[in-house]
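Why do we bother with a discrete structure alphabet at all? Because it lets us treat a fold like text: something you can write down, compare, and reason about line by line. To make this less abstract, here is a complete entry for Spherulation-specific family 4. Read it the way you would read a sentence in a foreign language you are learning: slowly, and without expecting to understand everything at once.
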Amino acid sequence: MKLLVPLYIYPLRDDSLAREWQEMKDAGDAGVSVVAIANPGSGPGTEGDRGPYSKGMQALRDSGVEVIGYVASGYGRRSEIQVKADIDRYKEWYGEWLSGIFLDEAACVFDDASDGDGAMCARYRGYHQRIRELMGDSATVVMNTGSMITEKALTDALGPDVVWNVLENSRSSLEKDFGKVATTFTPITKKVTATTKKKKTWKMMLGCGGDANAVEGPKVVEGTPPAAPPHVQGRAGFMVHGAARMSYEEICHWVNQLEDGGWSHVYMTDKIYDPDSDNPAHHNPWDAVPTYWADLAKAVGEISGAVRRDFDDGKIPPTTAGSSSSSKAAVSS
């Protein structure tokens, strides 16, 4: 599993790496698999962005973080010339450090703008081919539909090696549809019965359930996030905003269930998205990392089995910001 981070944050502050970019670098140095989406200006930006973003991208790549560039596709309605020009510009300006492209506003069904004549499939297949021609066959291509795509035509047209970010929603909406995540942790011996089958009990991964030698033993939490659509299992992205007060146990619980549900890329943040709010801080949930970033990075790193020793030796100390007292106890293991 990888972290798919919308890093819509300027990379430098006072000529030094911005804190959020430094946190991505630290995670990469610790062995966490991170895919950071760079977004200079809803696309490759301007000439003035080149220097700062080149410096930021190089720092991340040197630490093992994948960097992919943001390109808007207008749900298939944006000019193909403009979309391909953005892809070309990313290659020209940042090709040395770029791993691929994040195609935002991706079409959800093949006939969104083509009345079923197959033009939509051909359009996105053309974007996919352009990216691979410029950046190599191993380039990362992420299609951000933001909704649970059920149309196989698009996924079949682009092939089996494309990541589909098919869920971008608020935690409150998810809980309304799939059940609230419990904040009271129950013993691992709790059984799943007919009345609780929609709120299955999951064992925490090693390192996320507290001290295994403690009297109460490992702990679990309840709640079931949705599974990835069958035709994108193992290559599906999951982004949630408005996930406040996430304890370490909750984060680990979600990460476990998401991997079990076929999700390959995940991101959660306590930033709120409310475009109608009078508070401008609520207009963009991707302009900061979550207060529990370190806990999220550690959980994903642990489940992937790739976190190096320096992660636990203080390179990325688990945060206590926004965490419950139970999370502090769990992290102390």
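What the structure line is telling us, in plain words: The chain has ten helices and twelve strands. Residues 43 and 71 are 5 Å apart (CA to CA).
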